[in-house]
Amino acid sequence: MLQKIIPKALTVAQLSDSHLFADRNGKHHQANVYQNLKNVLLAIKKQPLIDAIVFTGDLTQDHTAASYELFVNAFEECEITTPVYYVAGNHDEPALLKKYLASAPFCQDSVIENDYWQVLLLESKSATPAGIIDEVECDRAGSIINSTKSQLLLTHHHAVDAGFFIDHHGLLNKAPLQQLLTEYPSIKALGCGHIHQALTLPVKLPDREINLYACPATSIQFDVNSETAKSNGQPPGYQLFTLTETGEITCKVFFV
């Protein structure tokens, strides 16, 4: 497995859930999602010293090839040169992601690391809107983990309940991931998309508790008091992880 080696401290920007259409003027719950994506990318570009960008899925809303092309166009128009990694969301087709996100700045590796940290990307897409991280995927992650370093795991689906309707489409099989987290105490935190909310959720393990940091969407933020998908009116956003040499992790959320 190819790995991106980055020296010193590690700063990773996460964005998620762009829900693009073939038309750059397409709207998702009245939001121009293409313009929202560009606004987020331009905000990330202004951040100093970002080593990598990770997109955690749901690129498309209408499932067209043109929406994937539009995603790439957004990065080109914003002149993003920072390496961009990704995982598939429940709306995405992995083959189309691999086809269209095939050249710089996009990277198809699943590990970003430096001397102190590993950021591991885990696939959670299933045949339904809910997620599955199976034993094979967890075994793959375990084979990569270097226990002398700290790890941040990023995926699309949320591994613990968020407390609103999106939990109907959360991670179905939590046991393999729970076992992975228990087996490797060097894993310091999780990050996900899918929730369309900036939330910090506790993940309780037998020997410790870690945080799941849910990334706000570039499209819309969900109303947690609604029983179905509905915008709460918040602007698009992203989050920024700072991973220090001493194994500490901070996560800051930005709305644009």
Gross geometry: globular
Structural class: alpha/beta
Question: Strand tally, please?
Answer: 14
Mind telling me the CATH superfamily name? Metallo-dependent phosphatases
Keywords: Hydrolase, Iron, Metal-binding
Domain Calcineurin-like phosphoesterase: 11-197
Pfam families: Metallophos (PF00149)
GO molecular function: hydrolase activity; metal ion binding
Please supply descriptive tags for the structure shown above.
Purple Acid Phosphatase, chain A, domain 2, five-stranded mixed beta sheet, 256 residues, alpha/beta
Describe the structure.
The chain has 256 residues and is an alpha/beta fold. It has one domain (10-255): Metallo-dependent phosphatases (Purple Acid Phosphatase, chain A, domain 2), CATH 3.60.21. The protein is 21% helix and 25% strand. The chain has five helices and 14 strands. It has helices at 33-46, 65-77, 94-100, 135-144, 174-183, and strands at 4-5, 10-15, 27-28, 31-32, 52-55, 84-86, 111-113, 117-121, 150-155, 187-192, 199-204, 209-214, 237-243, 249-255. The strands form three sheets. Strands 1-7-8-9-10-12-11 form a seven-stranded mixed beta sheet, with no helix packed on it. Strands 6-5-2-13-14 form a five-stranded mixed beta sheet, with no helix packed on it. Strand 7 (111-113) and strand 8 (117-121) form a beta hairpin. It is globular and about 50 Å long.
Secondary structure: elements and pairs:
Elements lengths: L3 E2 L4 E6 L11 E2 L2 E2 H14 L5 E4 L9 H13 L6 E3 L7 H7 L10 E3 L3 E5 L13 H10 L5 E6 L18 H10 L3 E6 L6 E6 L4 E6 L22 E7 L5 E7 L1
Parallel strand pairs: 1-7, 2-5, 5-6, 8-9, 9-10, 10-12
Antiparallel strand pairs: 2-13, 3-4, 7-8, 11-12, 13-14
GO molecular function, one term: metal ion binding
Protein name: Calcineurin-like phosphoesterase domain-containing protein
Keywords: Hydrolase, Iron, Metal-binding
